[in-house]
């Protein structure tokens, strides 16, 4: 097969690794400076300890707004040396080390109240404490240990500041690029589903891809909002990036709308289906190019192939309309998809205009090195969250106690019985134990599998590689790929992190293959200890929290539906308030689905009403999608008489949604019946027009009718799911309903 660099680069850009690539480069530079520089000055021990400090600080740099990252890196420079010195001092007495580890683990668990910043920084601090325990003063005196860790953490902070000075907005550009990479994943999922000739709404890949897009969009918006507060308002880069974020979100939503196309296996639709696939492929290509331009520099963005494929799709649809044996419902599905994809043209035009303007003089070096930190605001918000969780009933407080007892037990086993290399027991507990049992099980499996694979690699390296220079190069390579995959491929990152840590510790205290095999045993022991703590110490079962999260999602959907239907009643287009309600509904729907997936990761005996919850999650997403489709019709200039009995239908939809949302979280709330919705829907639908007598040249009224009927179907399905949730899922549930 010939070597094709362009094809390889295209596939690499398609992967959402842009931010991981930047973090990997920074972390490798920060680790390499002390590792190679101090080793060249004949200080091997400080070089290795400083490399460990730089590595831990790089792992703690989880990304996000500049100010959060600056605070994280600054605190790491302070906390890592202090934790390591405490661990080295307390290691002389097993009971003191156990007590210190327990107190530190409580702080690590409660640090989650400060968000991702506190979680990552707490983990890095815990690892530094354990590093101090295994580093005797004879090898590294306290001043050398603390100073080396401070130097390594300082290198990471300095490298980050240099990167920020050179490209102050590159971070948010990476996040916007990830938005378009996630949009590409949505389009690719739609293409795969169409090629399988299955209804797209029945597959989970498209829904999960859209959830990931919503997550990326919200993260990019949060970063952009904080940067805008730092700006003096004269720079136009940030508003332009906001336009790109919105374009990525709307392209993904329109693709999801096109994903509602159910083509079946009609022979007459094959030509139109092929045209639809080609159009989506061109859209994926354009989104991939936008992501590349944002991440790696200005390229050539040409949307004409997409325009051409849209024209081919329109002509294929025209042929489909003229076929006498084509069911109206079938070509209406394609009409709906065509209109959804046609709406993307405006968003792509915006992207072309922004990319033309974005890479100018104003995008050069920033005016200041450090952004304003707002540390007082961050501290106040974190303390408020912390106070809210200082209760024995709070999940975070219970997780802190659970983590404290588990880490203390692992530390007692290591220090009390003087187990050689037994530090891997508390270290594994620290990594594996998560607030929810589903996350703990997943981490335990990933870390164990990754460790076994990593140990095999480490055994090969320890026995075969003796040259110090080659070992340093291997350490830098392993650092790069560990940081590259850490956020998205945890098992692979652990596989690479295992030989990285083993090689570092092997340089500090050579032990041969004994360390390699012992680490497997101690890692397994730590994973078992973490699982036991997750199961037996105040387990946080997701099934207890899922009803409240579903109720929140259904309430947000009900509010969004009320706003959209009010616009339908008045004949006006959507406003900014409706757009924000749509964002909230889509985000809460994604959060509810994530909670449901976490429940599925729990043991089977702890799951309840899985089919009812699946129906609530799925039909809530469908309802949000269909309301968004209705939104896009409003204000387009196409008019049709309002359906009769519309007021009664809107009132019935809103009332049913409100009752479903209440009963999901409160078993005592009355669910009522569907009589009002069914009666109003029966009166409204036939009066609009018959499917077999519609005007195929002006399908707007029937397209709108189809959306209203889909909305009514979704609301009815939500009611049925809420009824089954309350009355059970027995074999006679359908008959009783």
From TrEMBL:
Family: Belongs to the YccS/YhfK family.
Keywords assigned by UniProt, alphabetized: Cell membrane, Membrane, Transmembrane, Transmembrane helix
Predominant place of localization: membrane
GO CC annotation terms, alphabetical: plasma membrane
Domain of life: Bacteria
Pfam families: FUSC_2
Keyword Transferase listed: no
Residues that span the membrane, as ranges: 93-114, 121-139, 145-164, 403-424, 444-462, 469-486, 492-508, 520-538
Compartmental location: Cell membrane
Integral membrane bound transporter domain: residues covered: 412-532
InterPro entries for this protein: Memb_transporter_dom
Protein's recorded name: Integral membrane bound transporter domain-containing protein
Bilayer topology annotation: Multi-pass membrane protein
């Amino acid at each position: 097969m010939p070597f094709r660099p362009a094809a390889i680069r295209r596939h690499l850009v398609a992967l959402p690794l842009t931010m991981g690539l930047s973090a990997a480069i920074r972390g490798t530079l920060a680790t390499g400076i002390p590792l190679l520089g101090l080793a060249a000055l004949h200080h091997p021990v400080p070089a290795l300890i400083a490399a460990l400090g730089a590595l831990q600080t790089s792992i703690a740099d989880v990304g996000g707004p500049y100010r959060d990252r600056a605070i994280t890196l600054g605190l790491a420079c302070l906390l890592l040396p202090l934790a390591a010195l405490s661990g080295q001092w307390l290691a002389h007495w097993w009971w003191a080390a156990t007590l210190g580890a327990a107190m530190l683990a409580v702080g690590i668990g409660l640090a989650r109240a400060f968000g991702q910043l506190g979680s990552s920084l707490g983990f890095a601090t815990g690892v530094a404490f354990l590093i101090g325990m295994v580093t005797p003063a004879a090898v590294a005196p306290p001043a050398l240990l603390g100073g080396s860790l401070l130097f390594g953490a300082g290198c990471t902070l300095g490298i980050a500041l240099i990167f920020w000075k050179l490209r102050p907005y590159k971070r948010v550009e990476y996040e916007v690029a990830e938005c378009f990479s996630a949009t590409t994943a949505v389009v690719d999922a739609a293409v795969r589903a169409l090629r399988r000739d299955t209804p797209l709404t029945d597959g989970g890949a498209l829904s999960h891809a859209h959830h990931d897009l919503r997550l990326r969009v919200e993260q990019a918006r949060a970063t952009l909002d904080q940067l805008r507060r730092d700006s003096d308002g004269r720079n136009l880069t940030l508003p332009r990036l906001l336009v790109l974020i919105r374009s990525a979100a709307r392209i993904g939503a329109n693709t999801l709308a096109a994903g509602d196309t159910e083509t079946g296996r009609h022979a007459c639709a094959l030509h139109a289906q092929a045209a639809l696939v080609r159009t989506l492929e061109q859209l994926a290509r354009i989104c991939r190019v936008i992501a590349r331009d944002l991440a790696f520099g200005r390229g050539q963005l040409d949307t004409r192939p997409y325009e051409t494929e849209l024209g081919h799709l329109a002509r294929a649809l025209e042929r489909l309309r003229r076929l006498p044996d084509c069911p109206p419902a079938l070509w209406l599905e394609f009409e709906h998809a065509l209109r959804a994809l046609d709406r993307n043209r405006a968003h792509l035009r915006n992207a072309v205009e922004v990319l033309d303007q974005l890479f100018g003089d104003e995008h050069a070096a920033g005016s200041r090195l450090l952004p304003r930190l707002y540390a007082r605001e961050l501290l106040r918000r974190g303390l408020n969250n912390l106070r809210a969780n200082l209760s024995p009933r709070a999940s975070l407080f219970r997780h802190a106690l659970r983590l404290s007892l588990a880490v203390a037990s692992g530390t007692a086993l290591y220090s009390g019985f003087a187990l050689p290399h037994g530090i891997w027991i508390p270290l594994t507990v620290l990594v594996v134990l998560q607030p929810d049992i589903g996350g703990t099980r997943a981490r335990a499996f990933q870390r164990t599998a990754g460790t076994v694979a990593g140990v095999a690699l480490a055994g090969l390296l320890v026995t075969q590689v003796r040259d110090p220079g080659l070992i340093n190069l291997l350490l830098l390579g392993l650092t790069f790929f560990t940081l590259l995959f850490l956020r998205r491929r945890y098992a692979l990152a652990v596989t690479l992190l295992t030989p990285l840590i083993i090689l570092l510790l092997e340089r500090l205290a050579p032990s041969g293959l004994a360390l390699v095999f012992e680490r497997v045993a101690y890692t397994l022991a730590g994973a078992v200890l973490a699982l036991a703590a997750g199961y037996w110490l105040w387990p946080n079962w997701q099934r207890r929290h899922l009803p409240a999260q579903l109720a929140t999602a259904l309430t947000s959907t009900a509010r969004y539906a009320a706003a959209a239907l009010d616009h339908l009643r008045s004949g006006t287009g959507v406003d900014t308030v409706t757009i924000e309600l749509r964002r909230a509904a889509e985000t809460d729907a994604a959060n509810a689905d994530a909670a449901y997936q976490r429940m599925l990761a729990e043991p089977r005996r702890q799951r309840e009403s899985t089919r009812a919850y699946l129906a609530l999650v799925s039909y809530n997403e469908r309802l949000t999608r269909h309301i968004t489709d209705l939104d896009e019709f409003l204000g387009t200039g196409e008019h049709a008489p309002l359906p009769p009995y519309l007021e009664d239908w809107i009132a019935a939809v809103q009332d049913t949604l409100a009752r479903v949302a209440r009963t999901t979280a409160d078993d005592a709330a009355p669910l009522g019946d569907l009589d009002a919705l069914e009666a109003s829907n029966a009166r409204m639908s036939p009066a609009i027009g018959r499917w077999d007598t519609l005007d195929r040249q002006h399908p707007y009224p029937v397209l709108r009718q189809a959306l209203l009927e889909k909305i009514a179907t979704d609301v009815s399905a939500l009611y049925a799911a809420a009824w089954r949730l309350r009355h059970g899922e027995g074999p006679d549930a359908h008959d009783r309903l």
